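User: Assemble these into one structure.

Assistant: Restating your components, then the assembled model:
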Amino acid sequence: MAIPIPTRHDAAVAEGRGERAFPYLLLLPAAVALVLVSIFPLYMGIQASLTHYVFGRAVGGGGFTNYVNVFADQTFWDAMLLTARYVIVVLILETVLGLGLALLVNRELRFVQFFRMSIIAPMAVAPVAVGVIWRLMYSSDTGAIDPLFVALGQSAPAMLAHPDRAFWALVLVDTWEWTPLLFLLCLAGLQSLPQEPLEAARVDGAGPIRVFFEHTLPLLVPVLAVGVVLRLIDAIGTFDQIFVLTRGGPGTATQLISIYAYNTAFNFNQYGQGAAMLISLFVVVFALMMVVVRLMRRSPAAT
Amino acid sequence: MNGRLSRTLTYAAIAVVVVICLFPFWWMISLSLKQRVDIFAGFTLIPLHPTLDNYTTLFTAHHFGDFLTNSIVVVSLATILSLLIGAPAAYALARFRLSRKINDLGLMTALLVRIVPAILLVVPFYLALAQFGLLNSRLGLILCYTGINTSFVVWMMQSFFAEIPKEIEEAALVDGDTRFSAMRRVIMPLAAPGLAATAIFVVINTYNEFLIALTLTSNPDAQTIPVGISTLIGKTQIDWGPMAAAGVIGVIPVLIFTALAQRQIVRGLTMGAVK
């Protein structure tokens, strides 16, 4: 009775083990493709950042000259600081609004399908189209924003023509486009929380605000962390809408690092300096990516 | 709090959010249907004398026929190629424990490529394609997009494959299938909904992509719709009607897809955090 009889199943498993190469064959094409869009560009980028270009032509090794020039360039630091300011402001706005909205609708409601459809629209369409939409909204010829202010008895703000306002105009666009993402993440997070501690706190007589800050928020933060850092990385690279709305202007008022690096490389054909800026930016982005990887390892459910 | 009052307030707040999300779209659609004189005639929500002139102008004077063709060719080929390359790899990562943490490494590489901002890739892509004479060509765009999309496909598909019970293909192996035929005959049909969801997401992403196409193309031979839209922004003035119409062409396919496949798109946009 205890004599093991080889079954067809065991044979199949053994044969499966024999086909050692099979999974690697499946992986190979994707591995090649991924190397071509990760390690290869990194190598090309570093190489370009160490090359001296004149009128867009490589004329030999430049050593670290490009980096020295970039770091001595006040405009580069202005663009980096502006990017930091932009990213921090939009992240705070989007997280607070997204969380508020999620708390509001975290209950049984009707019209959920329609609501979700409307709220996904801004982030599903092309960022270039988002730029067009808001260019039309802000325009003093055709816009809806200026008439709104006039109707409220204010003067027309001409958002994109004014350096300070242009920055906030872009923040508004980003918030419109991406609050929905934070909302969806927060809602999913809220719905995944264990209900017992929240119920217990309510039974103990804690008000809704105390329950939120002492119980809901601490449970939610680890769930949200991955999403927030991903949005952060994405926001650092914001380009399309700004290219359509202001191209970094008026002057350099909205020149984020992505716009400045693009202009340096492709308007002035300074590929070396552009590459040096982008490699510097990559160091920052890579650090954030490692944070994402860390956070995902800690909570595998969040992937 | 009074249950009914709070419920009413909730619906009111939702209504406000829906208006804020949708009004800008309506404004663009409305402008795209207005005649030139009406555009400048002041604030009106509905076009008084609706016309399709702005759309015709795009195709007769602004190469939108070419842009559309380029977008269709590039998007469909880059999607098909990335699915062919990415799906088998995702299956391998979801099903096999490979040596030396290859599973982990593969997934992490896919993740990093998936989230790296495009601006970090454009200078290397530009210089590499210049060396091979592939600037301003559909082929160049297809290659770049296939590479990037592969990371999306691997990342999304491996979670779909992981949801399929292992017993199903073990049964197929017992029935005499080889690993390959089990994958092709049993697993791929089961993964079809996931494959469709991934394809939709990749199509939208590729159709929307702007920065890479902007840097790698320079005329209507290869420029895609988003780049075509940006060519309408002149240095000194903008023809608002055609620009609105171009924006509508840019968003319509995506909105249709979104209406048809909300859940899948949400899953893609939130990297799988929301199912």
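Residues 1-12 of chain A have pLDDT under 50 and may be disordered.
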